[in-house]
Amino acid sequence: KVGWYNAVLQPAFHLPYPEDTLAFVVLSTPSMFEKALKPFVNKERLKIIRDPVDQCVSHHLSGVKEIFPDQKVDIIFDYEILPSRKPKFLAQTAAHVAGAAYYYQRKDVKLDPWGKKKIYGVCIHPKYGGWFAIRGLLLFPDIQVPFLEQSAPVDCVSTEEKRTELLEQFNSHWQDGRYRDIIEVKERYSEEQRAYFATPPAERFRLLGLTRVTE
After folding, report:
1. Does residue 9 lie within any of the structural domains?
2. Can you give the pTM of this predicted structure?
């Protein structure tokens, strides 16, 4: 429910819907690259003019509106920002309150070793660890679910030592991706997918055999 999300955030980040409004957090699993992105690129090759992953996600989530022609469906993508440069929604908070993935933050570590250093939090999925992404929100403004019960996310990094290790790896060594394997995972990104996301965004078009269109 939108109210679960708004309840844990400052008013500046609230979603402008009644608290009982139904919402879905959309995650992409490791197989998204092979099952969704590559087929999308092959089919829409000439129409890709911005980030291919963003366009692929937009294409598939927009298809939800066609599945529910009689419902109003609002979509907020993870890459959208407000004029103030703030994100339109805080993806990791949304995933946590929806019970999809646990958002580990500095406050989850009792013996804080970082002093004045800025420490960013990170979501971990009980099945995929850090090998997943939060792609968007689907909101159904005309559907109110006052009796929906909230499910807590799975606390899969449950020891103080592991949480400290997770936040340290994510903040200081995120490029090597070790934080993604903080727990035993069922599936990881393929080598091709890892190479794609390790490549600077401006050079990813070439990896997919695309020509970047510049304005």
Report:
1. yes
2. 0.92
